[in-house]
Specification:
Blueprint: H1 7-10, H2 12-16, H3 26-58, H4 62-90, H5 92-112, H6 116-144, H7 147-178, H8 181-186, H9 188-202, H10 216-237, H11 244-267, H12 282-311, H13 317-322, H14 325-345, H15 348-364, H16 374-402, H17 409-429, H18 432-435, H19 440-463
Helix pairs in contact: 3-4, 3-6, 3-7, 3-9, 3-12, 4-5, 4-6, 4-10, 4-17, 5-6, 5-9, 7-14, 10-11, 10-17, 12-15, 12-16, 12-17, 12-19, 14-16, 15-16, 15-19, 16-17
């Protein structure tokens, strides 16, 4: 899954920092933060392109293929919010570099994995590293610049991430056409070494806040809840009956999520990683429901289109790697213009338009079959997906940041980012009926998944009406 459209949501933490320390070495800090954070935006894109080759080489079942993707998404969805508190408690530089090191360890384990179990462990460790990298890399960035320069710094950070997430799958596709999928993960190791060296040298040492609260219970319960539900749904979509294993995993997952909600309510706003008061706002509820539905559909497209291009239409892997370059370009070009639409038409219309265009892209992808060519069949839905996400994501990010008090904006952005990953995780968990097919049946399952994704986008547009009506308010970071 490409993470390009997550860039604006994730960048909210940097924009929302209230204390900005002026830094002469700001350019160095920006470079270090960008280099480490770019790692997050390339791994899932590479995995999506390499998925068919991994399955073929290791003789993996559809259930296994789903966990190749979700083993990374699970820690991202469950632990991103608590990772920011870890940085506050133990130092953002230390946690950021720890995340980069874990990411590198995971990539190495994946590259040399002799079987499925080490492969999944490597993907989980990689996702754990990503969960530590993003919030702390952005906090480091936010503290390095005064308020009037933060937006420009985050813009450069976002551009670097977009370029990385666009170039990496293309390089991976070229490697896969002439070599092993393992090389696509091992090529990340020089980047990891560079990010560690630059981060250690250029990010200044920060002062941890020893009294920062770590919601360990919330982190454990959210991981158990998401993991249990993900495992149960994954088994069901691979043809399993409601046997004891599936029943237990679903019960454990639901119990974990209910326990998580009860734990957050007990801890209250000052200690919980998911402050309950955030969800007293209609706009926050509507924005997060919109996010979960839209990103679920988005992930289905970004995972399945390269898979069917390679396995079903037998297009070159390089072409699959290049398939979503328009996504990166349009998000970079159109997203700033979406702010103009917000100011002219208010907060709801751009989100409604974006969700509707993505729904149309999902519907048009029903034309993709075994005779598909890129320009006639793949490019049109990709173009609509890119245009729709470009219209929606910048207004969504601004809405999330402006629907709460300024001192809660970073938390709101973290919650919204976690919700997007949770939506992606459950979407992947429901794809077993597609990944287990071959030949004409592959496209039958693909078309059903695209129809379901289109329905999810329609539901996302309806969720827009939960959001409180009113004029768009630009987010202005404050000291």
């Amino acid at each position: 899954m490409s993470n390009a459209s997550l860039i604006l949501i994730d960048s909210g933490r940097a924009l929302s920092e209230r204390k900005a320390a002026g830094a002469r070495e700001g350019a160095k800090i920006l470079t270090a933060s960008s280099l480490g954070s770019c790692l997050v935006f390339v791994s899932s894109a590479i995995a999506a392109v390499a998925l068919a080759a991994i399955g073929r080489d290791m003789h993996l079942s559809p259930l296994d293929l789903q966990w190749v993707m979700n083993a990374e998404l699970l820690p991202l969805a469950a632990l991103t919010m608590v990772a920011g508190a870890l940085g506050d408690r133990y130092g953002q530089k230390r946690i950021f570099l720890t995340g980069v090191a874990l990411y590198g360890l995971g990539a190495a384990v994946i590259g040399f994995a002799p079987s499925f179990a080490p492969l999944i462990v490597g993907r989980f460790v990689q996702g754990l590293g990503e969960a530590l990298i993003l919030p702390n890399g952005l906090s480091v960035l936010g503290q390095a610049f005064p308020a009037d320069k933060k937006a420009r710094a985050v813009g450069i950070w976002s551009a670097a991430a977009a370029v990385a997430s666009g170039v990496a799958p293309a390089i991976a596709g070229a490697i896969l056409d002439h070599g092993s999928w393992r090389t696509t993960f091992l090529m990340l190791l020089p980047m990891v070494v560079g990010a560690l060296a630059v981060g250690a040298a250029w990010i200044p040492k920060d002062s941890p806040t020893s009294h920062a609260r770590i919601d360990v219970g919330g982190a454990v319960l959210s991981t158990v809840g998401l993991g249990g539900l993900g495992a149960g749904l994954t088994s069901l979509t691979n043809g399993s009956d409601l046997n004891l294993w599936v029943f237990v995993t679903l019960i454990v997952g639901l119990g974990g999520l209910f326990g998580f909600i009860a734990n957050e309510r007990r801890l209250g706003d000052n200690a919980a990683m998911l402050p309950p008061s955030l969800f007293t706002s209609r706009s926050v509820v509507g924005a997060n429901l919109f996010t979960a539905l839209l990103y679920g559909a988005f992930t289905v497209m970004l995972t399945l289109i390269p898979f069917v291009m390679i396995r079903g239409a037998h297009l070159p892997t390089l072409v699959a790697g290049l398939a979503f370059v328009p996504l990166q370009v349009l998000i970079a070009v159109v997203s700033p213009l979406a702010g103009m639409l917000c100011r002219r038409f208010g907060r709801r219309l751009p989100l409604f338009a974006g969700g509707s265009v993505v729904a149309l892209g999902c519907a048009i992808s029903l034309r993709i079959d075994s005779n598909a060519t890129y320009w006639a069949h793949i490019f049109p839905p990709v173009l609509l997906l890119a245009l729709g996400m470009s219209l929606a994501i910048a207004p969504l990010t601004t809405l999330v940041l402006t629907s709460v008090e300024p001192d809660r904006a970073g938390t709101a952005a973290g919650v919204n980012s976690a919700v997007s990953r949770a939506g992606s995780l459950f979407a992947i968990a429901l794809l077993g009926g597609v990944l287990q097919q071959g030949g004409p049946q592959l496209f039958s399952g693909f078309h059903m998944a695209m129809a379901a994704a289109s329905v999810a986008c329609v539901l996302a547009t309806l969720a827009v009406f939960i959001i409180e009506p009113g004029p768009h308010v630009d987010y202005i970071p404050r000291d």
